[in-house]
Write a structure and sequence with these properties.
By secondary structure, the protein is mostly helical. It is 61% helix and 11% strand. A three-stranded antiparallel β-sheet has the order 1-3-2, with helices on one face. 7% of the residues are buried.
Amino acid sequence: MAVLFFNLRDVPFDEADDIRQLLTKHEIGFYETSAGNWGISTAAIWLYDADDLEQARALCDAYQAERAETQRELYRLRKLQGQHPGFWRHNLGQPLHFLSYSALIAAVGYASVKWLFDLGL
């Protein structure tokens, strides 16, 4: 019976591709489902045989530990080189978005506590 192995929701394409290659390399049978036209189905990688789950999980855990280290190193290098934008630099790149979202947040905050001011507290 097929078993869910790897949920693909919010997974970068390169990571999903690496998982596919890892399973293929170790000859673990799998198939993939998409999220569908409306994005409400489960986009995932499924294993044909539940007996392969333990081996596949061990391979995936080792891969993700290695990937976490490489991504942390990449982040550190980008930050040292000044390529990582940070909060303010990112928002200065799109000032209209920043201002409109800030105004929306302020309006929601005001509407949430307006009734307290009306009570005189």
